[in-house]
């Protein structure tokens, strides 16, 4: 895990058990790279710290690890990114309790400077060049914000054309609501909603279309009808055939963090370590995909804003989004008009545009490559300004 924010770093230092008198020093040092390492022996924690110091870096460990009163300790390694390779070389000569960390640190180094391009419809698209926008098109009667608005094919196709004209880079079409408490929609019903819209869009819209489904059968039919991407909120856990379909077709796929099915995801929401659990589950989805033959370079990760998360979790995810860089894949975020914005502002979905734009700009600033939104034109304009500021600062 790579920690960016000062307040979050303080929380991680407290979790490690580092002496508070050292926190200001570590805050200064984390401007480069702060990497949390879990569950070291006391000897390993001390060796890691001494190796770091010998390389001009530093390492926070539990205050009682030095004396041996604390038998196990997490650690936070503070290191200039350019010196990571040198540090790994020194660490490789140390005992196995710490030299075993080298492959993971080397992989982290590669993931922090990844190729963020995906291939869509035979065209290479660099998602790291700017913040991209994915327009939401729900062909459902019960989605939390626009349910029923585009349920018929005519209005749905017209809205897709409108979003393309507003600057959408992708259009994401879903025929199954995944709002909290929602029930599954059978594949036959999804296809009855999707296919007329996809056929209409194919003749009139040139923007790549993504199909939002957890069903391999629905995805297969949508791809045959012109879709070019798959957006699977289950992280490839909902249908064992989905990963094999992706491997066969080679299309990109968004894999999302979803701790429980939408029907029950907001019940008993608990995280011991939110960021680590999100990263671990997404890493599991990537591994599941690769095991089925999917190219890693065709995967996009989504932390699942609003899916099995409470207000504090959504805010923390947006603030600490940069830590998903450790996965080495482009990041999609979907904050659009969601409940956490309503909780902050005390507003219903129709009045959450400004809150959505704020969340989008923060997400882009913290590393999002794609923003999934209902209000394409407003988001495109806000992100264009944010990108201009960031790239010319």
Sheet with the most strands, sense and barrel status: 8 strands, parallel
- Class from secondary-structure proportions: alpha/beta
H/E series, N to C? HHEHEEHHHEEEHEHEHEHEHEHEHHEH
Provide the helix percentage.
40-55%
Beta strands, count: 13
CATH class term of the largest domain: Alpha Beta
Unreliable segments (pLDDT under 50, ≥5 consecutive)? Answer: none
CATH architecture of the largest domain: Alpha-Beta Barrel
Q: Specify the overall morphology.
A: elongated
Number of domains: 2
* CATH evolutionary superfamily of the largest domain: Dihydropteroate synthase-like
CATH topology heading of the largest domain? TIM Barrel
How many helical stretches? 15
Rg is 22 Å
The neighbouring-strand order within the major sheet is: 11-10-9-8-7-6-13-12
Summarize the model shown.
This protein has 393 residues and is of the alpha/beta class.
Describe this structure in words.
The chain folds into two domains: 6-111, no CATH class; 117-392, TIM Barrel, CATH 3.20.20. Helix content is 43%, strand content 16%. The chain has helices at residues 6-16, 23-29, 42-54, 84-91, 96-99, 102-111, 153-166, 187-204, 216-224, 240-249, 274-291, 311-319, 339-345, 353-365, 376-392; strands at residues 34-41, 58-61, 72-78, 117-120, 123-126, 132-138, 170-174, 209-212, 229-232, 253-256, 299-302, 332-333, 370-373. The strands form three sheets. It has an eight-stranded parallel beta sheet with strand order 11-10-9-8-7-6-13-12. The chain has a three-stranded antiparallel beta sheet with strand order 1-3-2, with helices on both faces. Strand 10, helix 11 and strand 11 (299-302) form a beta-alpha-beta unit. The chain starts with 5 loop residues before the first helix and ends with a helix. The model has no long low-confidence stretch (mean pLDDT 92).
């Amino acid at each position: 895990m790579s920690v960016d924010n000062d307040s979050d770093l303080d929380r991680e230092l407290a979790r490690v058990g580092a002496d508070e008198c050292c926190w200001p020093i570590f805050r200064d040092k984390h401007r480069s790279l702060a990497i949390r390492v879990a569950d070291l022996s006391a000897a390993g924690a001390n060796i890691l710290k001494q190796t770091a110091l010998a390389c001009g870096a530093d390492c926070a460990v539990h205050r009682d690890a030095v004396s041996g009163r604390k038998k196990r300790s997490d650690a936070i390694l503070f290191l200039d990114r350019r010196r990571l390779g040198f540090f790994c070389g020194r660490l490789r000569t140390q005992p196995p309790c710490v030299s075993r960390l080298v492959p993971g640190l080397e992989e982290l180094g590669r993931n922090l400077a990844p190729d963020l391009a995906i291939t869509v419809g035979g065209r290479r698209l660099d998602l790291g060049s700017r913040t991209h926008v994915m327009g939401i098109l729900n062909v459902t009667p019960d989605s939390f914000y626009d349910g029923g608005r585009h349920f018929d094919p005519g209005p749905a196709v017209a809205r897709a054309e409108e979003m393309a004209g507003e600057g959408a880079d992708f259009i994401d079409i879903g025929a199954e609501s995944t709002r909290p408490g929602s029930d599954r929609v059978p594949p036959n019903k999804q296809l009855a909603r999707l296919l007329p819209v996809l056929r209409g869009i194919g003749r009139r819209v040139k923007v790549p279309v993504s199909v939002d489904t957890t069903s391999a059968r629905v995805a297969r039919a949508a791809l045959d009808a012109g879709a070019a991407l798959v957006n699977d909120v289950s992280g490839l856990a909902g249908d064992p055939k989905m990963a094999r379909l992706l491997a066969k077709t080679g299309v990109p796929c968004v894999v999302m963090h979803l701790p429980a099915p939408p029907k029950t995801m907001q019940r008993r929401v608990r995280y011991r370590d939110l960021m680590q659990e999100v990263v671990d589950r997404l890493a599991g989805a990537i591994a599941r995909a690769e095991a089925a033959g999917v190219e890693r370079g065709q995967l996009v990760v989504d932390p699942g804003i609003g899916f099995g998360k409470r207000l504090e979790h959504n805010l923390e995810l947006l603030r600490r989004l940069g830590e998903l860089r450790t996965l080495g894949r482009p990041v999609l975020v979907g904050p659009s008009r969601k409940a956490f914005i309503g909780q902050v502002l005390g507003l219903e979905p129709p009045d959450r545009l400004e809150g959505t734009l704020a969340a989008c700009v923060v997400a882009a600033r913290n590393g999002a490559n794609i923003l999934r939104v209902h209000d394409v034109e407003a988001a495109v304009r806000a992100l264009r300004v944010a990108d201009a500021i960031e790239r010319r600062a």
